[in-house]
Each structure stands twice: as C-alpha cells, then as structure tokens.
Amino acid sequence: APGTSIPSAQRCWHRGVPREPGARWAELGCQSCTCQGGQVLCEAISCPVSCSHPLPAPAGGCCPSCSGCWYEGVARAEGDVFSLSNGNCTVCLCLAGNISCITPECPPGSCPSSSPADCCSCQPAKCSFRGRSYPHGAHFSLDGDECTTCTCRGGEVECSFAPCPVLDCPQHQRLLRPGQCCFTCQDPPAPAGCLMDDNGVEFPVGQIWSPGDPCELCICQADGSVSCTRTDCLESCPHPIRIPGQCCPDCSAGCTYMGRIFYNNETFPSILDPCLSCICLVRAV
C-alpha cells in the first residue's frame, strides 16, 4: 500500500547495487537474474530460434538474429540472392533467416544453343558445316583461307577474321608477306653514317674525328650513333711544351722557360741571374 516500506531483508544487493524484490535484469555472459526473497537467482538466457540460418549474436548480445542469414561463413542480408561456390548454377535466397535454393532443370539429350553448357550435364549440339561435323567448342579455318577462323558453339558456326596486332611503325614500313594474314613492320634500313646536327656534316661508319677539343675523340658506330671518349694525359715533366692542336703536353721536344722554348740539351743564360748558365734536359717524372 502507498506509504508502506519494503523490509530491507527482502531487498537484494548484487555487485554493490540494490535490487527491489521481483526485479529482473541481464548480466554479462548471457545470464538472466532476479531478486527473490533477498536472494539473487541467475540462469542462462534461453534463445528460441525460429529460422534455419540465423545470424550470430552481435557483440554484447546473447541471441542470434533472424533478420538476415549466415551461410557457409558469410553473412547475407535479408532478401539477398546469391549463387553457390561450386558453380553448378544453383541460386539461393535469404528470407527471414532461412535459405532457399533452386537448381535449374536441364533438358535431356543435347543442350539447346541458348543454354550454357556449364550449368547442365547434357552434351552441346555438334556443328555440321560444309559437309563436315565439328564438336562444340572446336576451332577451325576455312578451306584455302587461313585468315578466317570459325568456332562451333551449340550447333551454330561463328566465323571471323583473324585478329591482327597493333603496329607501331609508319605506314610505309608495313609489309604483307606471302602466306600471312596480318601486316608486319619492316626493319628500318641500316644507317650509312652519322649525321651531326650542329653543322650538318655526315661521317661514314668507323670515321674517327675530334669535335674541337684535341683531348676528345669521337667515332661513328654501325647503328648511326656517335661515341666519344676523352684522353687522359699521364706523362708529365717540370717544363712541358704545349703544341697547338695536340692534347697532351710534349715532354720530349724541349723546355719552356720564362715564356721561351728551348730544345733538348740547349744551353742558355738565366734571365734572373746572368752569372748562371742553364741547360734544357728532358726528364719525364
């Protein structure tokens, strides 16, 4: 009655929370608990399932759901239509947690041309073409025309020209050889020499020249390209003589002293000290 108090002995304390007599609540681990006479009674939650392929319980839930389907490890949405993985053309439907599958009926004997051969165990019809019989899927060429290929598909013959590759050469380098169906690219003519773009001079294959630097030599390759290399001067002497048009200094002709050139074994007075006499001795170091 209003205004009356519930005896504390009938209340329940569970995990630090007071519960009124007759109260019912859910605990982790899918347990349903109730307070009866001051005691907490718990039991496992019972999950009645009314479908054949329910979805697993979501995270934090206890009971599976029939609002979708769980089939072969895959969750299917309500109303989803799908095919089986074995590829036998069976179609399945997910409806209210239940899976319904339908397998197409195959006609006896030969398959009609509109029926896919991989769905039925029947044998596709053969093709009769120009007095010859070909099995389903056979590829053949017409007599005297190797450029046309034909295929037998369910009793009907389909013919088409042989596909040709896309060529990346200009039109004047394309050639149709005898007995071939497609054009091919001709090899470009071998270059007769190397053409220098800067001055328009053409050098024959094997020609060696210097482009202006005496320490650099170029050669015309057989493919029309130019290969150039530089010369490294390894020989040195105290007073080398540099000859115009020559890459490396000459250490055998004479000496350069104070801007003047003296030959080997030539004696001359020193400009710095007139009492000294100098001699040019070529000794490479």
From TrEMBL:
* Keywords, in A-Z order: Glycoprotein, Secreted, Signal
Which biological process, per GO, is one annotated for this protein?
A: cellular response to virus
Recorded hits in InterPro entries, A to Z, give: vWF_C/EGF_Fibrillin, VWF_dom
Instruction: Enumerate the subcellular locations listed in this protein's record, separating them with semicolons.
Output: Secreted
Q: Which PANTHER family match?
A: VON WILLEBRAND FACTOR C AND EGF DOMAIN-CONTAINING PROTEIN
Record's keyword annotation contains Signal? yes
Record protein name field: VWCE protein
Q: Which domain of life is it from?
A: Eukaryota
**What is the protein's species of origin?**
Indicator maculatus (spotted honeyguide)
Q: Name one GO cellular component term.
A: cytoplasm
Q: Which Gene3D superfamilies match?
A: 6.20.200.20, Complement Module, domain 1
> VWFC domain location, by residue?
10-67, 125-186, 192-252
Q: Does the keyword Signal apply?
A: yes
